[in-house]
Amino acid sequence: MAKKIIGYLKLQVPAGKANPSPPIGPALGQRGLNIMEFCKAFNAATQEMEVGMPIPTIITIFQDKSFTFETKTPPASFFLKKAAKLKSGGKEPGRAIAGSVTMDQVKEIAEAKMKDLNASDVDAAMKIIMGSARSMGLEVKG
């Protein structure tokens, strides 16, 4: 028989840097989960990724205090900031332009994020990424 699910927990954890300090420790500890077990499993699962890359993670919590986790692709804003070589987005999106990205970069990001986006093809995914870029104060060239 399948285990009974008692909840889900969404966290954004840096790849390869999961440790029991806040915010991970308290979030897992409140629910009675083994914090070190999660940290070791997460770091092992993300060792191939760039260290420090923010990874959205959904943790499924079962009644017997065991868990499984699923990692998603990093946020579009992370890829856009990296492509535009910025530390943060624009202070006044829509008014001031903080930087720019090319259509090729947008396509590359859309292809990387495709499995997590609610889009049926790459063109639709590119429109989503372009919207994210505009809301960050980035100009899309090309």
Description:
With 142 residues, the chain is an alpha+beta fold. It is 36% helix and 23% strand. It contains five helices and five strands, in the order E-H-H-E-E-H-E-H-H-E. It has helices at residues 24-30, 35-45, 76-83, 103-113, 122-135; strands at residues 5-14, 54-62, 67-71, 99-102, 138-141. Strand 2 and strand 3 form a beta hairpin. The longest helix has 14 residues, at 122-135. The mean pLDDT is 89.
- Rg, Cα atoms, Å: 18 Å
Instruction: Bin the helical content.
Output: 25-40%
Low-confidence stretches: none
String of helices and strands:
EHHEEHEHHE
User: How many helical stretches?
Assistant: 5
Output the CATH class name of the largest domain. Alpha Beta
Major sheet attributes: 3 strands, antiparallel
**What's the rounded overall pLDDT mean?**
89
SS class: alpha+beta
Distance between the termini: 54 Å
How would the blueprint of this fold be written?
Layout: E1 5-14, H1 24-30, H2 35-45, E2 54-62, E3 67-71, H3 76-83, E4 99-102, H4 103-113, H5 122-135, E5 138-141
Parallel strand pairs: 4-5
Antiparallel strand pairs: 1-2, 2-3
Helix pairs in contact: 3-4, 4-5
Compact description:
With 142 residues, this protein is an alpha+beta fold. The protein is 36% helix and 23% strand. It is built from 5 helices and 5 strands.
